[in-house]
Amino acid sequence: METAGVDAGEATARPPVVWPGLDGVAGRRFDLLVIGDVRLEVRAELRGMRFTDLTADRLAYADASAVVAGTAVNMARSATAYFRNVGLFTRIGDDDHTGSIRRELSRIGVRDLCRVDSGMPNGVAVMVRDDAPAGPGVRLLIAARNAPSRRLSEADVRRAAAEIRAADVVFLDGYALLSPISRAAMCAAARIANESGTLVAFDLVPHDIDGRVPRCEVLPLLALTDVVVTEAATVARLLEAPPPVTSAEARELPPLLDRSVGGRPLWLLRFGETNLENVLAYRRGEGGGGLQLEYASGYGEGVERAGFGDRLASCELYWWLSARSLG
Fold first, then answer.
1. What GO MF annotations does this protein's record show (predicted)?
2. Average pLDDT over residues 39-54
């Protein structure tokens, strides 16, 4: 939980998993606006079965659940443990699931700023993870192409400009880059935030974004951000560099980031055996200063992988904002 009497130097000297930690804080601070994807998601884990073993149709009984999820909901849900106010802005559908989405946002304490796309269905995703002798197994994620969030427009964002300006930080993610309509909306949101002093955090996903979106469509948005959360391997592939696994390899990325991306974002680079065990926090400084801090994320054997990345990102954002406010 949050401790008192922490100054800016202490906040950045200690890794965020030490302070404020991964379990939330007693005194929530700052206002966060999340813009992204909302879906109904069916989740299942196949015990004792690998995808590579499936050579014919198979009936499997497994623990399965249907939840309100999507990148925006998942991040907002974790952020409520740290932030005073969390809002979620996107487009959602107009069907039998709309009420479930709104009830879930209310239940988790997230301000519902969603625009209903009249007559359109909500997005659906299916996530199945197989079993593995070691590690979390392989995840198969199937997402419907017609999710309403892909139609979030620049006009929508302009109508939400007051919410963006009022927030301390707005959190965006790269799935919006897969549609030219929502891609333009994300850029508009970042520009409004830049002009008003609201900070911009960006989650660079999907992890194979280098094969889905031209680099020239990604780098301009990164230049508008203050914090980039990503797997080191993802940004390395985007910049046509070898994906790092070890600490020494991860530390070769900062000079390449400096040459390739404008601005001075704080990079939170995940790396390790499963791309989640370790983090290199790096920010280019002015006059030779800056930040370079490496720490264990807290992820390992026995830790639930689902939702861990959002918990970690929420913790890191709170850590960074606290250091800025004390500096």
1. kinase activity
2. 93
